[in-house]
Task: structure prediction
Amino acid sequence: MIDARVKVPHPVNEPVLSYAPGSPERAALKAELARQSGEVLEIPMVIGGERVTTGEQRDAVMPHRHAHVIGRYHWGETSHMDQAIAAAQDAREAWMAMPLRARSAIFLKAADLLAGPWRQRINASTMLGQSKTAFQAEIDAACELADFFRFNAAYAEQIHGDQPGSVRGLWDQVDYRPLDGFVLAVTPFNFTSIAANLCAAPALMGNTVVWKPSLLAMHSAYQLMLLFEAAGVPPGVINLVTGDPASLVDRALESPDFAGLHFTGSTAVLKALFGKIGERLDRYRAYPRIVGESGGKDFIVVHPSAKDDLDAVATAIVRGGFELQGQKCSAASRCYVPRSMWPALKARLIEMVASLKMGDVADFRNFMGAVIGRAAFDRNAAYQEHARSSSGIEVVCGGNADDSVGYFVEPTIALVEDPQDKLMAEEIFGPIVGVHLYDDDAYEETLALCDATSPYALTGAVFSRDRGAIEIALRMLRHAAGNFYINDKPTGAVVGQQPFGGSRASGTNDKAGSAQNLLRWVSPRTIKETFVPPVAPGYPFMDAE
Ligand code: NAD
Result:
């Protein structure tokens, strides 16, 4: 046993590689894309370290070329959920007994494997399976995930080092115990890093995990399981189960050993799971922890003082609204623009959007790929149809979709007269941005409108050169966004720099990639030791006068 007080290596953000023509990373990524495109990966479940296959398989396809199958994943039943829970429970004792130093070493190794030899494997898988461009895959699957692993190791050390003071004769300690059962990770399709982190963060703190990934990101989910194994995560610590999401998750929530939910996905599903857990409280050994990050209706408010920043505003709308086809929880989705600025801004936006290419992500000239699947395509097409057919809405650019080869949705900007229209109020989760114009002297009324229009409170931005106007926005929009940006797009939070999460309908705001998140995966035990205990019950005040 090593008693040294070791120090976790100081975390530094993983540098984002450029993939510029002629760069070695570009050549390596292209080769890996070709390799993965040329095979059909068999994707089993992984339970207790065993590969589990079933008689039934489903296709994992490229969203931008939906006839192209890149993987076949095995479809599990609720009995597999039972097996995964049993495997997680079996692995608990040994994993809890492993010192934090050793658990951290495993995830630090995962970071270095990912940043090194595994980088293009995970990037290519994310590009092909989730239709991300090279840059979008790099900032997610390689960099953000390596950052999660490295920064969380440092935060875990910080948490364990946070100890109470002791007076003479006593020693007070806090034992940061993992939760009293397994953690269920239910993960979204849109970020490979989030999928991995929802498993790795509780595991780092000593918990064992049952993982139900998104059916729309199975190719990268399996690569992540292989990465965990290669880094030394022991069998049973993270168990991957697939099948019908509602039945599998419902089964897990029936277990008395269920101790916590680490969820990212839509608000409707988070609310439903919250409700189920509440109804079943009597079954559980302890009150389960619920960490859930969900939808957003993220805004950009432009103040008239930004009139000379048209390129910056237009770039924020285009990058914030259309990168990853608008499928970021933080994607800019509604903008409030002073009427006086609109003619010039409109011209810039039309010009910028016209220069964007959309298509196969293996062609690096493309700025956008496809939306994730049939349901997402139909939902986006319906919002476009609403924009085209409503009398108070002008389609400024885009407005069409084509699913003949892939699920392609044109980047669309719509000028919306009614600020309560669904384009200004609902999460669309696609490349569609609503713009509402306001009279230049109605800034504060517009901030109040922005605050009250949608139930979400995830991200938002204000553009202004006027410090007073920025301060007013910070005050009036204090609860409207968990991540607030000044003169920047509302997307692209970096671990260790802008801890991420929102409140209201957007989630429990436990800030992924922060000590605050890790604290949810421990249940502290306070230990008081008295060195020389008293030996008589009386106190001096009881003595005779
Ligand atoms: P989703 O809700 O469809 O799926 C999320 C997960 O829940 C998946 O694993 C899915 O299989 C599972 N699921 C679906 N229906 C279920 C049910 N009835 N019971 C139990 N589990 C069920 O979300 P998605 O399409 O994968 O992701 C997009 C959503 O995630 C958007 O709303 C986006 O805003 C949100 N998101 C939020 C953040 C954040 O940090 N706030 C980050 C990424 C994505």
In short: Residues 186-191, 194, 212-215, 245-246, 249, 264-266, 269, 293-296, 329, 427, 429, 458, 500, 502, 506-507 surround nicotinamide-adenine-dinucleotide (CB under 6 Å). Residues 326 and 544 are 80 Å apart (CA to CA).
